[in-house]
Amino acid sequence: MSDEKKQKIKIYGASDDLIEIEGDINEEFSAFLDENGHIAISDGSLIKVFYNGEWFFNVLKKGLCTIIKRGILDKDNEQEYSEELLLEGKIDWIVYGNSMAAIK
After folding, report:
1. Distance (Å, rounded) from C-alpha 86 to C-alpha 102?
2. Which residues contact 44 (CB under 8 A, 6 or more apart)?
3. Whole-prediction pTM
């Protein structure tokens, strides 16, 4: 069994132009110019991001980390506005377009 620390990270969309990264890596990526981009993760995962009034995340290639996908409710608990990805595993960096977040 490995003693290597596993990172826990949550990815979701906020507003109409932000992709939020929370957990062991924290970042806010602007999707203003590219709402339909890709997220690459150091474990080998590749995720397609799509926005059409709601945020969707399609796992194109699953890497070594565990990925759980679920919807989240808006502030009034009435409807989903963004899917949410929960990742756990060895993750050193996350890239969206030409923006990067990494473990410090």
Report:
1. 17
2. 61, 62, 63, 64
3. 0.85
